[in-house]
Amino acid sequence: MAGSRKLGRTTDHRIAMLRAMVTYLLENGSIKTTVTRAKEVRSMAEKMITTAKTNDLSSKRKVLAYVTKEDVVKKLFDEIAPKYADRNGGYTRIIKTGPRRGDAAEMAIIELV
Length: 113
Fold this sequence. Notes:
Blueprint: H1 11-28, E1 30-34, H2 35-53, H3 57-66, H4 70-83, E2 92-99, E3 106-112
Antiparallel strand pairs: 1-3, 2-3
């Protein structure tokens, strides 16, 4: 998997969490999460969008293997990827929102540009 942050989880749990977060980000356009998680999600989300820009069967299968909902994959290929056709990377933006109440973890909003 991309990156090297362990996020205090076992490998399977971490991969499952990142897949779910990437799917949710592509579905809704933004997520509020911790800064380190946002940075990991950014890496995979940008890879998914870049793969989706080449609209062929191979890339559809690659994305389907990672994104957990089929309707999100359809949205990615039909709406999101064409929007970024002339853009080379940098599809997401991370905005820091300050510490979380409770454990003071640094929070951020990650959104599609």
